[in-house]
Amino acid sequence: MAVERTFSILKPDATERNLTGAINAMIEKAGLRIVAQKRVRITKEQAEQFYSVHKARPFFGELVEFMISAPVVVQVLEGEGAIAKYRDVMGATDPSKAADGTIRKTHAKSIGENSVHGSDSPENAAIEISQFFSGNEIVG
Ligand code: CMP
1, 43, 73, 87: which is deepest, by most CB within 10 A? Predict the structure, then answer.
């Protein structure tokens, strides 16, 4: 399997509960390497742009407000099949449906406050990484 990069966000519900280290340990235990990472407060415009695919959904406003409510940690993860692997490690979007041992089953509070985001395709991974990192910030 090819080595890939995926984009990850540790969301406000995770940073507020001081779970950065606990979640990073789950990421690394799964064999993914954190090759870039920064803690930032994203702007409303950045959140709206990042989630623009969900613009028409009823939860869009709530999602944007949540993502700007506290700092987030944005990351680039690298590894074999990193995109699918991280989605496995995160678990289902709705934590009540997530498998045991996944980040969302272990830590998420609700479908909205679900602790982590991960890219869903190679195309979106490239777009999402470029929204937050320049090439020389990613050290593999
Ligand atoms: P994420 O993987 O970041 O991508 C889109 C996000 O929208 C998703 O995680 C959830 O946090 C959020 N989301 C999806 N469905 C709902 C919902 N019904 N109510 C609130 N937020 C939602």
Answer: 73
> Is 107 in the active site?
no
112 Cβ below 6 A of ligand 1: yes
SS3 115: coil
Please give the structure tokens belonging to residue 40. 């930032």
- Counted residue by residue, the chain has a size of 140
Answer whether 84's CB lies under 8 Å from 2's CB. Answer: no
Tokens of 41: 């407060």
**Could you read off the pLDDT of 54-97 as tens digits, one per residue?**
999 999 999 999 999 999 999 999 999 999 999 999 999 999 99
Element (H, E) at 136: none
State mean pLDDT over 21-37: 98
